[in-house]
Amino acid sequence: MDKFISFLKASWEEVQHNVTWPKFSDLQSSSTLVLVASLIFALLVGLIDLVFENGLNAFYQSF
Hints:
This protein is mainly alpha-helical and 63 residues long. 86% of the residues lie in helices and 0% in strands. The protein has two helices and no strands. The protein starts with a helix and ends with a helix. The chain crosses the membrane at residues 32-52. Keywords: Cell membrane, Membrane, Protein transport, Translocation, Transmembrane, Transmembrane helix, Transport.
Protein backbone atom coordinates (compact mmCIF):
# COMPACT_ATOMS: atom_id res chain seq x y z
CA MET A 1 0.00 0.00 0.00
CA ASP A 2 2.93 2.33 0.70
CA LYS A 3 4.12 2.02 -2.90
CA PHE A 4 0.70 3.00 -4.18
CA ILE A 5 0.52 6.05 -1.90
CA SER A 6 4.02 7.15 -2.92
CA PHE A 7 3.02 6.69 -6.57
CA LEU A 8 -0.01 8.93 -6.08
CA LYS A 9 2.07 11.58 -4.31
CA ALA A 10 4.73 11.51 -7.04
CA SER A 11 2.05 11.71 -9.73
CA TRP A 12 0.45 14.71 -8.05
CA GLU A 13 3.85 16.42 -7.77
CA GLU A 14 4.42 15.79 -11.48
CA VAL A 15 1.04 17.29 -12.37
CA GLN A 16 1.58 20.36 -10.21
CA HIS A 17 5.16 21.21 -11.10
CA ASN A 18 6.26 19.58 -14.35
CA VAL A 19 3.21 19.58 -16.63
CA THR A 20 2.80 22.51 -18.99
CA TRP A 21 -0.88 23.31 -19.24
CA PRO A 22 -2.20 25.04 -22.37
CA LYS A 23 -3.71 28.50 -22.20
CA PHE A 24 -7.47 28.85 -22.24
CA SER A 25 -7.40 30.61 -25.63
CA ASP A 26 -5.47 27.67 -27.10
CA LEU A 27 -8.09 25.27 -25.75
CA GLN A 28 -10.88 27.39 -27.22
CA SER A 29 -9.32 27.47 -30.67
CA SER A 30 -8.66 23.73 -30.59
CA SER A 31 -12.23 23.05 -29.50
CA THR A 32 -13.58 25.26 -32.27
CA LEU A 33 -11.45 23.42 -34.81
CA VAL A 34 -12.71 20.05 -33.59
CA LEU A 35 -16.32 21.27 -33.68
CA VAL A 36 -16.05 22.60 -37.23
CA ALA A 37 -14.26 19.45 -38.45
CA SER A 38 -16.92 17.25 -36.81
CA LEU A 39 -19.73 19.21 -38.44
CA ILE A 40 -18.08 19.00 -41.86
CA PHE A 41 -17.54 15.26 -41.42
CA ALA A 42 -21.16 14.75 -40.30
CA LEU A 43 -22.46 16.69 -43.31
CA LEU A 44 -20.24 14.68 -45.66
CA VAL A 45 -21.42 11.36 -44.21
CA GLY A 46 -25.04 12.55 -44.36
CA LEU A 47 -24.62 13.55 -48.01
CA ILE A 48 -23.08 10.19 -48.90
CA ASP A 49 -25.92 8.41 -47.08
CA LEU A 50 -28.49 10.46 -48.99
CA VAL A 51 -26.86 9.68 -52.33
CA PHE A 52 -26.72 5.95 -51.59
CA GLU A 53 -30.29 5.88 -50.29
CA ASN A 54 -31.66 7.61 -53.40
CA GLY A 55 -29.48 5.53 -55.70
CA LEU A 56 -30.57 2.25 -54.15
CA ASN A 57 -34.23 3.30 -54.11
CA ALA A 58 -34.03 4.12 -57.82
CA PHE A 59 -32.27 0.82 -58.48
CA TYR A 60 -34.87 -1.24 -56.55
CA GLN A 61 -37.82 0.57 -58.15
CA SER A 62 -36.51 -0.28 -61.62
CA PHE A 63 -37.41 -3.96 -61.06
